[in-house]
Design brief:
binds glutamic acid; five-stranded mixed sheet; Rossmann fold; seven-stranded mixed sheet; 2 domains; 17% strand
Amino acid sequence: MNALETVNRYVLEAAKTLKLDEALTRFLMTPDRQLRVEIPIIRDNGKLEVFIGYRIQHNDARGPFKGGLRYHPDVTDSEVCALASLMTWKTAIVDIPFGGAKGGIQVDTKQLSLLELERLTRRFTDVINPIIGPNIDIPAPDVATNEQTMAWIMDQYSRSHGYTPAVVTGKPVSLGGSEGRGAATGLGVAFCTREACRTFGIELKGARVAIQGFGKVGSHTAISLRDMGAKIVAISDVSGGRVNQQGIDLKEALELQAANGSIQGLHGGDSVSNADLLTTDCDVLIPAALEDVLTEKNAHAVKAKLIVEGANAPSTFEADEIFEKRGIHVVPDVLANAGGVTVSYFEWVQNLQQFRWELSEVNERLERRMVQAFEAVKAKAALHQTTLRRGAFLLGLERVADATKLRGF
Ligand code: GLU
């Protein structure tokens, strides 16, 4: 099953357990609005090129649509639909007043100059302008987009609406971004790992952690977990990875990444491919890159006792079934990586208040929210004697269905 089939299967299962009406279930599985756009830009060589982009708004029963914008050559409408749906459940699970959306542009950012990327982003902002806004839909960074991308969107949108920082989150701090937003997803993954270790009787101190992906999510997850006493034994990025049972030198990895945009050349241990990292010897596995990397082909070979999904939809439905049978615990994406959108919410609140919070306040609130969400998911799972993933979907669906019914159709 691909990511969309997988998420719809979880939604369907939860809807059945909750005995939701069939039409309501279908409504909750289908995006409210799907926009596919052509984005023409003039390349630096003077030639015209047209890119395909999407903004898919899945559900806004609990508040404005919310979700990232991804730049990747493999972006498809089906993938964006799946990711938009996941945002709906994620925002409900951490109980922030947003719905779910996702956007994407089919582009390899490495092939574009900075000026071309800026033109692409500004043009995309113009074409989605009518359907975004602080009370409508609030984009944010995702794979291969960053604070600079958000700054361009904010600026472009503000040209037609006046200064509107709350139209996007994940902005640079100097432009109304929140302290702590950059590290938030990774820190949230680390909080969930800590809570899961407590729950399942794994000693976090000295626990061997393997992390696939050393970008916005993976790098901050690694730092936060190391600070909590875990031992990071494997990391990787698109260039490949490194496994070292003595512990990865994170300082060197961060320096290499800052200097070259990649961890290539990291010393110590052995090199490992992105695929082999998933089945490397470790206690905790954290996929923090792309979707569908854990499948029925490699799920049997996973050695970790605990998987914490830093990425969105890294496990297929079949892989998840195998993990359940094998007694491997999984903290699902909709809970594990919700720290990012949680601090996005804090950023939006600060923008609306025109007031700034200090880093300590952001991180304290993030920790409280993540622990509360973890406890709520755990309680739901216990009540239904099921996995954390099913517990999470039950909690999310219940909240969204409730809001939908109360608002009326
Ligand atoms: N792209 C991130 C996610 O998948 C963050 C979304 C946001 O902050 O709106 O959760």
